[in-house]
Amino acid sequence: MKIDNPKANELLFKFCLFFSLLIAVSCSSENKTEGNEASNTTEENTSSAPAAQPEAVPVADQSKGIGPVSNVNVGADIDKTLAGQGKTIFESKCAACHKLNERYVGPPLGGVTQRRKPEWIMNMILNPQEMVQKNDTAQALLSTYMTQMPNQNLTQEEARAMLEYFRQADSEPKQK
């Protein structure tokens, strides 16, 4: 049986990265509550169920994600110019970790517009750290891929262009 060392090394790297991120998030959340004695007292006097955080998004809003985008109007027709801009952005900022139709460092993005709402997609592009902290779907993706998506510092217009590129790619027949 042949062992594929590059795959094993990649898996080990992802495993270490995941636990480093887990420790960083854990330390970050401890620092936020340490400075607030009232918060500590309240948490000590409550049951074992976690207390609701004021900034937490209600479960009903989870499908749109957390971030600056609360509503996206997409038309029935795809804006090919905007999709072309999105493809250029994707190739320069995202293709190192994402492919459309295969698992890579991050999840495959083919069909993403059929699985997620436009607002969720744009919020994940614009606000990946907070999405991973507060959105159940983003947390599940981190758990599966063990890699935190970095913030690429895109504008809402650039994220909208990428959404249009994803819509265009999802509307085309899949090539084998």
UniProtKB/TrEMBL annotation:
Residue span of region Disordered: 32-64
Keyword annotations of the record: Heme, Iron, Metal-binding
Record bears the keyword Metal-binding: yes
GO MF annotation terms: electron transfer activity; heme binding; metal ion binding
Stored PROSITE patterns: CYTC (PS51007), PROKAR_LIPOPROTEIN (PS51257)
Residue stretches of biased makeup (Polar residues): 32-48
Domain of life: Bacteria
Domain Cytochrome c: 81-170
Full protein name: Cytochrome c
Upper lineage: Bacteria, Pseudomonadati, Bacteroidota, Cytophagia, Cytophagales
